[in-house]
Here is the input.
Amino acid sequence: MSKHPELTADRLRQLLDYDPESGLFIWKMSRRVKAGDVAGSLDTRGYVQITVDGKIYRAHRLAFLWMEGTMPPDQVDHINMTRTDNRWSNLRHAERWENLGNRPANSNSKSGIKGVHWDTRRGKWHAQIRSAGRKHHLGHFNTIEEAQAVYNFAAGLVFGTYAYHLSQGTPQ
Here is the structure.
């Protein structure tokens, strides 16, 4: 049994105000902080976290509790991929595979383009996409632009509005 009771929307609204336009939570009552102070701090992954009744919550999940009355069952996606941007218009429900579609190439990517890498054995650019935990080969190409275009097309089919397209610099 948890030592912290489940946080309800009523309890959250009793302690904090949420501004959907700015994405900020503001303390309503003084405790260890003053009423009127912005709530939260950054965690090690760059998300805003807020401690409520001794338990740490990520602000984007609290936004759903505040706006919809329940915690989201799965993940929350930051549409613009800015982890501190908790404006209501920037948040949406997501399953894990959808959320993974809305992220750039890994920081260790040599091409810098999601789903594209150089195949030294073939001397061509290789495009692939991951879906349902499996890699799917999309082909080998003479130019990085061709490989990127094929990946972008496949990402649009697989991830829909969650697809991240590097060429535009933002998710579509």
Q: What stands out?
A: The first helix runs from residue 9 to 15. The longest strand covers residues 124-131. Helices lie at 9-15, 59-68, 96-101, 144-159. DSSP finds four helices and twelve strands in the chain.
